[in-house]
Amino acid sequence: MSRYKTVLMFGAPGSGKGTQGAILGRIPGFYHCSCGDVFRNIDINSDLGKVFYEYSSRGELVPDEVTVKMWAQAIQARHTLGQYKPHQDLLVLDGIPRTVEQAKIMEQYIEVLKIIHLSTDDEEAMIHRLRRRALKSNRHDDADEKVIRRRWDIYKKETAPVLGHYPTDLIHNVNAIGSPAAILHDVLEVVTPIQDRHFQAFDG
Protein backbone atom coordinates (compact mmCIF):
# COMPACT_ATOMS: atom_id res chain seq x y z
CA MET A 1 0.00 0.00 0.00
CA SER A 2 1.37 3.42 -0.93
CA ARG A 3 1.48 5.71 2.05
CA TYR A 4 -0.85 8.69 2.41
CA LYS A 5 0.84 12.04 1.68
CA THR A 6 0.28 13.90 4.94
CA VAL A 7 0.59 17.25 6.68
CA LEU A 8 0.46 17.05 10.49
CA MET A 9 -1.13 19.83 12.53
CA PHE A 10 0.71 19.76 15.83
CA GLY A 11 0.44 21.80 19.01
CA ALA A 12 -0.56 21.99 22.64
CA PRO A 13 -4.19 22.01 23.80
CA GLY A 14 -5.74 25.31 22.77
CA SER A 15 -3.19 26.03 20.04
CA GLY A 16 -5.87 25.93 17.33
CA LYS A 17 -4.66 22.89 15.38
CA GLY A 18 -8.22 21.58 15.00
CA THR A 19 -9.49 24.97 13.81
CA GLN A 20 -6.72 25.36 11.25
CA GLY A 21 -7.05 21.74 10.11
CA ALA A 22 -10.80 22.17 9.59
CA ILE A 23 -10.24 25.37 7.55
CA LEU A 24 -7.66 23.64 5.35
CA GLY A 25 -10.09 20.74 4.89
CA ARG A 26 -12.55 23.10 3.19
CA ILE A 27 -9.99 23.96 0.51
CA PRO A 28 -10.11 21.60 -2.50
CA GLY A 29 -7.09 19.30 -2.52
CA PHE A 30 -6.88 18.96 1.26
CA TYR A 31 -8.68 16.33 3.36
CA HIS A 32 -8.88 16.98 7.10
CA CYS A 33 -9.15 14.11 9.58
CA SER A 34 -9.41 14.82 13.30
CA CYS A 35 -8.61 11.92 15.59
CA GLY A 36 -11.25 13.25 17.97
CA ASP A 37 -13.91 12.82 15.26
CA VAL A 38 -12.74 9.24 14.67
CA PHE A 39 -13.14 8.41 18.36
CA ARG A 40 -16.53 10.13 18.65
CA ASN A 41 -17.88 8.19 15.65
CA ILE A 42 -16.49 4.76 16.57
CA ASP A 43 -18.96 1.87 16.31
CA ILE A 44 -18.79 0.40 19.83
CA ASN A 45 -20.29 -2.85 18.53
CA SER A 46 -17.32 -3.50 16.22
CA ASP A 47 -14.34 -5.53 17.46
CA LEU A 48 -12.12 -2.48 17.78
CA GLY A 49 -14.98 -0.44 19.20
CA LYS A 50 -15.45 -2.97 22.00
CA VAL A 51 -11.76 -2.78 22.87
CA PHE A 52 -11.92 1.02 22.81
CA TYR A 53 -15.00 1.04 25.06
CA GLU A 54 -13.40 -1.44 27.44
CA TYR A 55 -10.50 0.93 28.13
CA SER A 56 -12.38 4.24 27.98
CA SER A 57 -15.15 3.04 30.32
CA ARG A 58 -12.47 2.36 32.94
CA GLY A 59 -10.99 5.81 32.35
CA GLU A 60 -7.80 4.27 30.95
CA LEU A 61 -5.83 5.35 27.90
CA VAL A 62 -6.48 3.29 24.79
CA PRO A 63 -3.27 1.43 23.75
CA ASP A 64 -1.33 3.01 20.89
CA GLU A 65 -1.75 -0.02 18.62
CA VAL A 66 -5.55 0.07 19.03
CA THR A 67 -5.70 3.84 18.51
CA VAL A 68 -3.78 3.62 15.23
CA LYS A 69 -5.85 0.65 14.01
CA MET A 70 -9.05 2.61 14.69
CA TRP A 71 -7.69 5.59 12.79
CA ALA A 72 -6.48 3.41 9.89
CA GLN A 73 -9.89 1.74 9.58
CA ALA A 74 -11.65 5.12 9.59
CA ILE A 75 -9.42 6.68 6.92
CA GLN A 76 -9.68 3.56 4.75
CA ALA A 77 -13.48 3.73 5.00
CA ARG A 78 -13.44 7.37 3.91
CA HIS A 79 -11.19 6.40 1.00
CA THR A 80 -13.53 3.56 0.01
CA LEU A 81 -16.56 5.89 0.15
CA GLY A 82 -14.77 8.38 -2.08
CA GLN A 83 -14.76 11.15 0.54
CA TYR A 84 -10.96 11.11 0.60
CA LYS A 85 -9.01 10.69 -2.65
CA PRO A 86 -5.34 10.07 -1.76
CA HIS A 87 -4.05 10.68 -5.30
CA GLN A 88 -5.67 14.13 -5.35
CA ASP A 89 -5.91 15.14 -1.70
CA LEU A 90 -3.24 15.91 0.86
CA LEU A 91 -4.24 14.38 4.18
CA VAL A 92 -4.30 16.89 7.05
CA LEU A 93 -4.19 15.19 10.46
CA ASP A 94 -4.71 16.64 13.90
CA GLY A 95 -4.78 14.86 17.24
CA ILE A 96 -2.69 11.92 16.03
CA PRO A 97 0.02 10.76 16.54
CA ARG A 98 -0.10 11.65 20.23
CA THR A 99 2.80 9.50 21.37
CA VAL A 100 6.16 8.55 19.93
CA GLU A 101 4.97 4.93 19.70
CA GLN A 102 1.94 6.00 17.63
CA ALA A 103 4.27 7.96 15.32
CA LYS A 104 6.37 4.84 14.79
CA ILE A 105 3.35 2.62 14.09
CA MET A 106 1.86 5.17 11.67
CA GLU A 107 4.96 5.21 9.46
CA GLN A 108 3.48 2.25 7.57
CA TYR A 109 0.42 4.36 6.67
CA ILE A 110 1.58 7.95 6.19
CA GLU A 111 4.40 9.86 4.52
CA VAL A 112 4.77 13.08 6.51
CA LEU A 113 5.60 15.91 4.12
CA LYS A 114 5.44 18.73 6.68
CA ILE A 115 4.55 19.33 10.33
CA ILE A 116 2.87 22.63 11.18
CA HIS A 117 3.80 23.23 14.80
CA LEU A 118 1.42 25.81 16.27
CA SER A 119 3.68 26.97 19.05
CA THR A 120 3.62 29.46 21.90
CA ASP A 121 5.69 30.17 24.97
CA ASP A 122 2.64 31.61 26.75
CA GLU A 123 1.02 28.62 28.46
CA GLU A 124 -1.34 30.85 30.45
CA ALA A 125 -2.72 32.40 27.25
CA MET A 126 -3.50 28.91 25.91
CA ILE A 127 -5.19 27.88 29.18
CA HIS A 128 -7.29 31.06 29.09
CA ARG A 129 -8.25 30.31 25.47
CA LEU A 130 -9.33 26.76 26.37
CA ARG A 131 -11.47 27.98 29.28
CA ARG A 132 -13.12 30.63 27.12
CA ARG A 133 -13.76 28.11 24.32
CA ALA A 134 -15.29 25.55 26.71
CA LEU A 135 -17.62 28.13 28.27
CA LYS A 136 -18.65 29.43 24.85
CA SER A 137 -19.50 25.84 23.81
CA ASN A 138 -21.33 25.29 27.12
CA ARG A 139 -18.88 22.53 28.12
CA HIS A 140 -18.43 23.53 31.75
CA ASP A 141 -16.51 20.37 32.69
CA ASP A 142 -13.89 21.27 30.07
CA ALA A 143 -13.64 24.77 31.57
CA ASP A 144 -12.29 23.40 34.86
CA GLU A 145 -8.77 24.81 35.18
CA LYS A 146 -7.50 21.65 36.90
CA VAL A 147 -8.69 19.55 33.94
CA ILE A 148 -7.05 21.93 31.47
CA ARG A 149 -3.75 21.95 33.34
CA ARG A 150 -3.80 18.15 33.48
CA ARG A 151 -4.25 18.05 29.68
CA TRP A 152 -1.24 20.35 29.36
CA ASP A 153 0.83 18.13 31.65
CA ILE A 154 -0.06 15.05 29.56
CA TYR A 155 0.82 16.96 26.39
CA LYS A 156 4.25 17.97 27.71
CA LYS A 157 5.00 14.45 28.96
CA GLU A 158 3.62 12.28 26.13
CA THR A 159 2.91 14.35 23.00
CA ALA A 160 5.53 17.10 22.82
CA PRO A 161 8.32 14.45 22.44
CA VAL A 162 6.67 13.32 19.16
CA LEU A 163 8.33 16.29 17.42
CA GLY A 164 11.71 14.77 18.24
CA HIS A 165 10.76 11.66 16.24
CA TYR A 166 10.75 13.61 12.95
CA PRO A 167 13.61 15.33 11.07
CA THR A 168 13.83 19.01 12.01
CA ASP A 169 13.56 20.09 8.35
CA LEU A 170 9.97 18.76 8.29
CA ILE A 171 8.90 20.98 11.20
CA HIS A 172 7.68 24.52 10.60
CA ASN A 173 6.82 26.67 13.62
CA VAL A 174 3.81 28.98 13.37
CA ASN A 175 2.93 31.39 16.17
CA ALA A 176 -0.33 30.15 17.70
CA ILE A 177 -1.17 33.54 19.23
CA GLY A 178 -3.15 35.74 16.87
CA SER A 179 -6.36 35.81 14.88
CA PRO A 180 -7.40 32.62 13.02
CA ALA A 181 -6.97 34.48 9.71
CA ALA A 182 -3.43 35.64 10.54
CA ILE A 183 -2.44 32.12 11.61
CA LEU A 184 -4.07 30.67 8.47
CA HIS A 185 -2.00 33.07 6.36
CA ASP A 186 1.19 31.67 7.90
CA VAL A 187 -0.03 28.07 7.53
CA LEU A 188 -0.91 28.56 3.86
CA GLU A 189 2.56 29.93 3.12
CA VAL A 190 3.90 26.54 4.21
CA VAL A 191 1.35 24.15 2.72
CA THR A 192 0.63 25.85 -0.62
CA PRO A 193 3.98 24.82 -2.22
CA ILE A 194 3.42 21.27 -0.93
CA GLN A 195 -0.01 21.15 -2.56
CA ASP A 196 1.43 22.56 -5.79
CA ARG A 197 3.99 19.74 -5.93
CA HIS A 198 1.32 17.14 -5.12
CA PHE A 199 -0.93 18.45 -7.92
CA GLN A 200 1.94 18.45 -10.40
CA ALA A 201 2.78 14.84 -9.51
CA PHE A 202 -0.92 13.90 -9.87
CA ASP A 203 -1.29 15.69 -13.22
CA GLY A 204 1.96 14.21 -14.42
How does this model look, in words?
There is one protein chain. This protein is of the alpha/beta class. It has a single domain (4-203), classed as Rossmann fold (3-Layer(aba) Sandwich). 50% of the residues lie in helices and 16% in strands. The protein is built from 8 helices and 5 strands; from the N terminus they run βαβαααβαβααβα. It has helices at 17-25, 35-40, 47-56, 64-80, 100-106, 123-136, 145-159, 180-203; strands spanning 4-11, 30-34, 90-94, 110-119, 171-175. Strands 2-3-1-4-5 form a 5-stranded parallel sheet. Helix 1 crosses helix 8 (180-203). The chain is globular, with a radius of gyration of 17 Å. The mean pLDDT is 89.
In short:
With 204 residues, the protein is α/β, with parallel strands linked by helices.
Defining traits:
single chain, 50% helix, 5-stranded parallel β-sheet, alpha/beta, 204 residues, 5 strands, 8 helices, Rossmann fold
